[in-house]
Amino acid sequence: MQTAETSTNPTDAAVDLGPATALSCRECGHRVPLGPVFACEECFGPLEIAYDFSDYDAEELRKRIEAGPANIWRYAPLLPVPADVATKPNINPGWTKLVQADNLARELGVTGGLYVKDDSGNPTHSFKDRVVAQAIEAARAFGFTTLSCSSTGNLAGAVGAAAARAGFRSCVFIPHDLEQGKVVMAAVYGGELVGIEGNYDDVNRFCSELIGDPAGEGWGFVNVNLRPYYAEGSKTLAYEICEQLGWRLPDQIVVPIASGSQLTKIDKGLKELIELGLVEDRPYKIFGAQAEGCSPVSTAYKAGHDVVRPQKPNTIAKSLAIGNPADGPYVLDIARRTGGAVEDVTDEQVVDAIKLLARTEGIFAETAGGVTVGVTRKLIENGVLDPSLTTVVLNTGDGLKTLDAVAGTGLTATIRPNLDSFREAGLA
Amino acid sequence: MQTAETSTNPTDAAVDLGPATALSCRECGHRVPLGPVFACEECFGPLEIAYDFSDYDAEELRKRIEAGPANIWRYAPLLPVPADVATKPNINPGWTKLVQADNLARELGVTGGLYVKDDSGNPTHSFKDRVVAQAIEAARAFGFTTLSCSSTGNLAGAVGAAAARAGFRSCVFIPHDLEQGKVVMAAVYGGELVGIEGNYDDVNRFCSELIGDPAGEGWGFVNVNLRPYYAEGSKTLAYEICEQLGWRLPDQIVVPIASGSQLTKIDKGLKELIELGLVEDRPYKIFGAQAEGCSPVSTAYKAGHDVVRPQKPNTIAKSLAIGNPADGPYVLDIARRTGGAVEDVTDEQVVDAIKLLARTEGIFAETAGGVTVGVTRKLIENGVLDPSLTTVVLNTGDGLKTLDAVAGTGLTATIRPNLDSFREAGLA
């Protein structure tokens, strides 16, 4: 019998993905065996991982997690990975800092406790390491040998780095005219980095073609045919936040929206912790954050719609610039069901928020972090977010990757190298 | 009585810096009370922290450390900080990954276990967060209100971020014509960022003037008048490496040399762990790594000299470009005493080593990391470093901060968005 490790035909592989038992359609509930598929054969709905957690005792599980490694694999019992995942070569992201943001809280008038979950501490400095690390384990289980994706930024670096560590070939597709800095960040890991003559939509269309072609056999596209596994990585943000709060749910959590997947998986993670008895069952509110220049979900939320109308993105928050977010309707559901909201801020407010977070907490966030902090401020000012409740704001990336956003920041003074000049400048 | 927290006259403050009892001259042993001084009044030698560790029981101490936070404050009992340091606002660096670098080991022929201590995981992505976090606690104890330094890179960002979090004013001095990207990285934290019309030497001379002037009263210069405290932060690298190896000394460790302080403090940390009974007492070898374009210590080592002759730096490894390293003679001592060595590599070898580390382990290192990996390779090839022994290589910074070094890296292919073009490029 072929083992998963050596199989060249992924669908025949005998897979061990721990507590994951099947793929289940989010729309119609149709189940299929674990494999590299992402859309329901019955209704074309998105497939999600189904688990068997029935054997777990809450107290034992908590102890097992707390004794685990300082990365996402401490939650291996709740993820689609084999029990010995921590022994395999991978990028091992997670267990990033939950920063108690007292200075920011004072500025925003938050009295109930404000925390920043700072995912810039991941290996390639964005939350993408979490999802790619999951995709790696799925790729290993299905016998894939090449890891691939389309990307314009964070994902390319995360795939390149993780593939290098885990011993996969990587082949990443990007628009051919991407800024040189971003190309370097993705190219340094030594995988194939292919420029496509066209825009990001052309890149995606090409990848879809490749998946259906024999040339793409043995290729795992992290956010396409491995998407159900990949997406589960975002649950670890929910797990970590609760564990770092002392196994307590936050009252309010502010999450950026690109495809919307991260927000839905954070909700899934919180619900799982409640069902498993790891946290007390009480209400929490999830708030979604977008940039005004790409705010299809926020626009639908405010209009009271269930359907999200695509937009053409035009914002500096490029890592969130998905004009037609696949999980938009689910995000609307969750925001409404939990008593949260979806809000957006202008690019100017994004920049202000990046500077506010840096100045108060010493955290230099990517534009996506400016979006969540800016939206938090706006929601407090509008009386939507309750400042007397425990609030967690996500920073999902690193300011070093979006330096252009704050390029106007500079020297506060220029002086000659002597004390007179120092005094003249009013610095004494 | 004035408390340390509110004192405006640092030297009068009653300080609680945990196990630290005095400052002791490294040259003549003369002791002075803990305070913001850095040179011996008797012989002008460098002052170091003296500790009282006599009450510690090895087993209790180990348990206390293991139960501590996932940052450098787990080692509070061994650092010049108060016991409740973890409750104070600080940047909380450390507990970065010790990556088991099996792919790199295969490339280099290391069979005894090769590890990369990856300090790019720190809050501002360099090891400077460790030393600045220490300086912050000393500044707090001495009642300083402004944190300052001269810098051309990593240190400026580390000081800006830590000061923001800890509630200090910061005023950082840099050459006025620094690259815009580096200015932005330092300016975003909102402190004073003052450009000095002159080169880095002019900046340093001005800072020395300022320290002696009333205008500098209440100012803590992290690497000048707070240097004895600041420097101790590097000990935590030694502690973490041993704890992460399962409370075991590495056989060989490769450390970059700028001022040489980090290498001497790693040696101090290893010796302390042996004396405290936290690790077995057996030999270890410390190797120093420099770039050829700034290799005063390596040059002295190879010539068999005890004295280090200053050089004018000319290398892409700018974070190591100190032509007159203060701790150079101590580094020579340590390399010779432990059976290690000091070696240097060319800029071309630095770039090759950055790419090698990225390609094998998915770690994108700053040029300083290219220096240590490049030197490791060279020392193995020359038969100086024993590949059958456990070896730890330090990466002290992040590739995102020195993108220029690998600017030549780029697309491996450019294709049109169709399968024919994909096949023509030989990618299938």
UniProtKB/TrEMBL annotation, chains A, B:
The modification N6-(pyridoxal phosphate)lysine is found at residue 128. It comes from Streptomyces coelicolor (strain ATCC BAA-471 / A3(2) / M145). InterPro entries: Ser/Thr_Dehydratase (IPR050147), Thr_synthase-like (IPR004450), TrpB-like_PALP (IPR001926), TrpB-like_PALP_sf (IPR036052). Keywords: Lyase, Pyridoxal phosphate. GO terms for cellular component: cytoplasm. GO terms for biological process: cysteine biosynthetic process; threonine biosynthetic process. One of its GO terms (molecular function) is threonine synthase activity. Its cofactor is pyridoxal 5'-phosphate. It comes from the Bacteria. Residues 93-397 form the Tryptophan synthase beta chain-like PALP domain. Its EC number is 4.2.3.1. Gene3D superfamilies: 3.40.50.1100. It holds the Pfam family PALP. Belongs to the threonine synthase family. This is Threonine synthase.
